[in-house]
Amino acid sequence: MAKAAKSTFRCTECGWSTLKWVGRCGECQAWGTVEEAGAPAPGSVAPAPVSSRARPITEIGVETAEAVPTGVDELDRVLGGGAVPGGVVLLAGEPGVGKSTLLLEVAAMRARQGPVLYVTGEESAGQVRLRAERLDALSDQLFLAAETSIASLISHVDAVQPRLLVVDSVQTMVSPEVSGVPGGVTQVRQVTGALIQIAKERGIATVLVGHVTKDGSIAGPRLLEHLVDVVLQFEGERHSQLRLLRAVKNRYGPTDEIGCFELTEGGIEGLPDPSGLFLTERTDPVSGTCVTVTLEGQRPLITEIQALVAPTPLPAPRRATSGLDTARVNMILAVLEKRTGMKLANMDVFTSTVGGMRLAEPAVDLATAIAAGSSFNGKVLPPGFIAIGEVGLAGDVRAVTGVRRRVAEAQRLGFTLAVVPKGFGESIPGIQVHEVEELSEALDHVAKYPKPRLVKK
């Protein structure tokens, strides 16, 4: 007798296959992603009727695919002009960062143009109504439903015929056609596929809220990010008012734009000019601080970096960072000790940013080095001073992108002195620019400035 064909189990994340089911993939080590695939059926695929004939691309109309503004300028900036009819947006972020608050305000603004359906699977309708009253986000065209079944959600869509659909969240929705717990791989894939089909067929702009895991990645299968059109990441420190919205993937616009929001008691407000949040308000200058300009997407932001260098009785000095890359700060400290002669081996060094800002680009290296040198030497930097540049292992100051845009932003906010890498070669009225080639040259240049006089009150 012929042996029966054995089933094949395949990982939905990386494609690893095995002859028996296991709970954890042996290749990518992901849990719950191995499913039965079965033997592929041989033979060719017969042609089937088409839904619409293929046309030249020049005959395709774009009127139905143009972005519609949401009413929130910072969100429109990240989306590339607004929400596209039929587009599916996945908004992810840590718990409590303000995802539901932001979307409720967006839904209320969009309800002025037509019906909006807000489906919540995590709260009751009364709880969402209380938040809407606090945010002043009430509208007769904003329809609210508390459902966890995708079948019931489709019924609400048929009844309301919304222009915007908000699902909070996709991990709470279940489909009766497949088995599995809510938030599981099978359920998330099935629910997301059904929502995408509804959005494309009916031209409804759809926003899905997604949970994140403890390491910050979006929960669920990686396929979820590939299926949607836009993936947005909502970031922010729990103890800070600043919230940043980044586009990780965007089929309709750029991915190098960010939106800045401020979380207040009355909700979330857009910040068209958020640089003031990243500067310390003080009357007397102190050592160990240096201001730089970072580029978040296409937006220059003024940011202050603080450093504290102090002797330590411990055999192993401490190195602590907040808002900066630890490995890069340690590299800068090693360059300072090797190339400039600073003795930091028996010093504790603490570095931080102001306002909860996270800096990862190399353009802030020079400001970090000057802040550490200022704290080590007790040298107070002059008012209106900024530093921009990348520091290399040889102690050289390298050029970075967008220097002119950074310096112009600093001049607009009242800064008068700037240290930049060699080769800038431009003159901007209102700000004095000094070009340096070595880190030691930048530190020597800063040391030439007289100590600011403290005004007695």
Written overview of the protein:
- Residues 64-212 form the RecA family profile domain.
- It comes from Nocardiopsis coralli.
- Keywords: ATP-binding, DNA damage, DNA repair, DNA-binding, Hydrolase, Metal-binding, Nucleotide-binding, Stress response, Zinc, Zinc-finger.
- This is DNA repair protein RadA.
- With 457 residues, the protein is of the alpha/beta class.
- It has three domains: 7-39; 66-272, P-loop containing nucleotide triphosphate hydrolases (Rossmann fold); 277-447, Ribosomal Protein S5, domain 2.
- 24% of the residues lie in helices and 24% in strands.
- The chain contains ten helices and 21 strands.
- The strands form five sheets. It has a nine-stranded mixed sheet with strand order 6-5-7-8-4-9-10-11-12, with helices on both faces. A four-stranded mixed sheet has the order 13-14-16-15.
- Helix 7 (326-339) packs across helix 8 (365-377) and helix 8 crosses helix 10.
- It is globular.
- The mean pLDDT is 87.
